[in-house]
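User: Please fill in residues for this 266-position structure.
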């Protein structure tokens, strides 16, 4: 089935007086890996929360599988979330549960299944991320890369149609990072997923994504395939993709003139 899994139109959102999104519009095509790039504070993680219905926009709409997320009842929203997997920026594993029980948790919580079937599902998900042998370990005993892979196994435990990754590459060593990149790509193909990868890591995003959006100042500043974004001559994209210190991206957060704050009068 073709079409878009997610459609966002004229999305506005603010934290108090701080305007985060100012009319964002984008599509997430079915079966693709879409990267959303942007600097810290650009609204990337906020966008995921709006897609999942954790936050409500001031204006605009978010539809997932044709359903307007913010017009759903609590029951309908809960049902929709079962079709969405989320890999959190901090992994979010339950520290007092074993790796096995972390993966089993969403299955037991949402489905009434015999424990033997739960066991098979857990082992299959762990095998998919290469950690079936680590099922008895506790989260505190895992390396950073292993923790991310367990978090990924838990995210796919309920067989979602849409996967969302919040900064999946942050803080990983080169080997673990490449493992996560390969897993995102391979799981998307093997499980028939649609994936949204939110990150500031340009290099890895361009490796894994079919399509890229770059956001800043609350709007889309650039979009295209990985090659198109990497080759762009747009000043903002060029600065962001090449990590240039000088360009249109502001270093100082907006505020009154320094002289005014320090009460210096000429």
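Assistant: Residues filled in for all 266 positions:
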């Amino acid at each position: 089935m073709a079409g878009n899994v997610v459609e966002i139109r004229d999305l506005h959102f603010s934290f108090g007086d701080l305007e985060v999104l100012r009319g964002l519009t984008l599509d997430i095509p079915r079966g693709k890996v879409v990267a959303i790039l942007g600097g810290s504070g650009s609204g990337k993680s906020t966008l995921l929360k709006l897609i999942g219905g954790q936050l409500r926009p001031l204006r605009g709409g978010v539809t997932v599988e044709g359903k307007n997320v913010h017009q759903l009842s609590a029951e309908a929203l809960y049902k929709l979330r079962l079709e969405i997997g989320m890999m959190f920026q901090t992994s979010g594993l339950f520290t007092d549960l074993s790796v096995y029980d972390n993966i089993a948790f969403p299955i037991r919580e949402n489905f009434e299944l015999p424990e033997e079937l739960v066991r098979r599902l857990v082992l299959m998900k762990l095998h998919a991320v290469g950690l079936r042998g680590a099922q008895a370990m506790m989260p505190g005993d895992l390396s950073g890369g292993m923790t991310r892979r367990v978090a990924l196994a838990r995210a796919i435990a309920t067989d979602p149609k849409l996967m969302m990754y919040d900064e999946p590459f942050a803080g990983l060593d080169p080997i673990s990072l490449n493992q996560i990149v390969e897993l995102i790509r391979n799981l998307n193909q093997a499980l028939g997923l649609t994936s949204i990868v939110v990150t500031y890591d340009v290099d890895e995003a361009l490796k894994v994504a079919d399509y890229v959006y770059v956001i800043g100042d609350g709007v889309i500043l650039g979009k295209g395939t990985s090659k198109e974004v990497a080759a762009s001559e747009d000043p903002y994209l060029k600065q962001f993709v090449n990590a240039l210190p000088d360009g249109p991206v502001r270093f100082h957060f907006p505020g009154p003139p320094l002289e005014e704050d320090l009460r210096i009068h000429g």
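For context: The chain is about 35% helix and 25% strand.
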